[in-house]
Amino acid sequence: MASSPTQRSLALMREQGYVADIAESYNAFIKKRKDLYKFIDLVGLHPKHKGVLAVQTTSGSNIQARVKKAEGLPAYHLWLACGNPVEFHGWRKLLKKKGGKQKIWVPKVIRVTQSILN
């Protein structure tokens, strides 16, 4: 599987039937990544779902910090108010089988929609 959280989430979205792409950009001058609207790494369209899915992807230990950061952004609330969902993917390595030795990347997914905020 892909090596970075962004690539793992992109692969997951595509497996789920999304037409997905990277929305963050890289500023070579300052050597830093910039998220779309300060919280979106990926966007996806799905033929069976309304709206545009925004995804913030990170490590499993940082997922709550990313949620809290997004909640403080006006663009996050506007995104949801427009009827678009947001998912936070926190990637961590877990044992494939109980008692086994092989570890696999597994996402913790937090999905937020406008209805959750009402």
3D architecture notes:
- By secondary structure, the chain is of the alpha+beta class.
- The protein has one domain (5-117): Trna Endonuclease, Chain: A, domain 1, CATH 3.40.1350.
- Helix content is 27%, strand content 35%.
- It has a five-stranded mixed beta sheet, with helices on both faces. The chain has a two-stranded antiparallel ribbon with strand order 2-3.
- The model has no long low-confidence stretch (mean pLDDT 92).
The counted number of beta strands is 7
Helix coverage percent: 25-40%
Strand residues, percent: 25-35%
For the record, the CATH architecture stands as: 3-Layer(aba) Sandwich
Biggest sheet strand order reads: 1-4-5-6-7
Please describe the topology of this protein:
Elements lengths: L4 H11 L3 E4 L2 E3 L4 E3 L7 E4 L7 E7 L3 H9 L2 H8 L4 E10 L7 E10 L1 H4 L1
Parallel strand pairs: 5-6
Antiparallel strand pairs: 1-4, 2-3, 4-5, 6-7
What key attributes describe this structure?
single chain; Trna Endonuclease, Chain: A, domain 1; 118 residues; alpha+beta; five-stranded mixed β-sheet
Quick overview of this protein structure:
Helices cover 27% and strands 35% of the residues. The chain is of the alpha+beta class.
